[in-house]
Design goal:
This protein is an all-alpha fold and 351 residues long. It is built from 15 helices and no strands. It has one domain. The longest helix has 33 residues.
Length: 351
């Protein structure tokens, strides 16, 4: 796309971002609908389906970048996405109201464990950057191959935690709302209630195709924009592309907050952070090279990962301490997260 003007590239980037948003929201709704019809919400297969559907924009970008050998885009989108998606909790906190912070309304040990699980996956990604390319197995970084295994093991643990009332205890005046298994017992979206299952599957497939095409355009136009503006493709991916692929989470998260499912809004963000990182295994397979083994040469990678981890640590602690006071409609954790993000952006421009 290097032959396009900057204006045309920006139009393509924004347009594909809009398509990603609309298709992403449709994916979430159709997945919930199919989940309720086939009763797979509490099974690992259901959780995998939901994880794939929710991260399809990232899958599309990673797939396109891997096929074209754009390693910085893969790394920037996935690792940079940690801080972008965690920052969304600030938006949700503001939308939750001014009486109590979101971490108090939704807070439980269960959410803290889910956040620590995402942090553990991020640490594995950091360790994978230390594995030399020569140690790869069939062009795959061994720790990248271990990421899906660790993710499934973590889901099994979290599934047990969710069923244990000891970990789900919340304050009397909190408002966690429905959780995953409670939401998926019923048809959630009236728009699909009178549609046949085959019709819903058709909408799901169409949304998948639209997301994949939009993701490819996002990656290609984003790369070209970064070249024309003289910005590193990794930095552009970690900010603008990561934000574009996170747009569906903004819509679905705000929808959960509006109907009072505060716990669910937070859980889906942390679950998305964990799933997003296992896409490095997919990237290795498609690029036929250990992506993270080449990442150690770039100072941005370690910084981006630690940046995202620091922001998640703030919430992991907050879900345990459950601060009660709001300042300008935000909890102390959200204010600290904003400061961390602002400091990170400043540091990123200086590295």
């Amino acid at each position: 796309m290097g032959g396009f003007s900057l204006t045309a590239l920006l139009a393509l980037f924004v347009g594909s971002g809009v398509v990603t948003w609309l298709a992403g929201v449709t994916l979430t709704k159709t997945t919930d609908s199919l989940d309720a019809r086939f009763k797979i919400g509490d099974a690992i297969g259901g959780l995998v389906l939901l994880g794939v559907a929710g991260s399809l924009p990232e899958i599309a970008v990673v797939g396109s970048a891997a096929l074209h050998g754009h390693m910085p885009v893969i790394i920037g989108t996935l690792i940079g996405g940690l801080s972008i998606q965690t920052l969304l909790l600030v938006i949700f906190d503001f939308a939750a109201g001014k009486k109590r912070p979101l971490s108090y309304l939704a807070g439980s040990v269960e959410l803290s464990i889910e956040t620590l699980f995402a942090i553990a996956i991020a640490v594995m990604v950091l360790l994978a950057t230390l594995v030399p390319a020569g140690k790869s197995v069939f062009h795959v970084n061994p720790l990248s191959a271990a990421l899906p295994i660790a993710w499934i093991a973590g889901l099994l643990v979290i599934n047990k935690v969710r069923k244990n009332a000891r970990f789900s205890a919340v304050a009397e005046d909190s408002a966690p709302g429905r959780k995953h298994h409670e939401r998926r017992k019923v048809e959630n979206h009236p728009f699909y209630a009178n549609r046949s299952t085959l019709h819903v599957i058709g909408i799901f497939v169409f949304a998948c195709i639209a997301t994949l095409i939009a993701g490819w355009i996002l990656e290609e136009s984003g790369n070209a924009i970064a070249d024309k503006l003289g910005i590193g493709t990794g930095i552009f991916a970690a900010t603008f592309i990561a934000l574009a692929t996170a747009i569906p989470e903004i819509s679905t998260g705000l929808e959960s907050i509006v109907i009072g499912d505060n716990h669910l809004a937070v859980s889906d963000i942390m679950g998305g952070n964990a799933f997003m990182l296992i896409l490095f295994f997919l990237a290795d397979l498609m690029a036929r090279k250990p992506v993270l083994s080449y990442a150690h040469r770039d100072d941005h990678v370690v910084f981006l990962a630690l940046w995202g981890v620091a922001m998640m640590v703030v919430y992991a602690v907050s879900f345990l301490l459950r601060p009660r006071r709001c300042y300008w409609r935000l909890g102390v954790d959200s204010l600290l997260t904003i400061l961390l993000y602002a400091a990170g952006v400043f540091m990123l421009t200086r590295i």
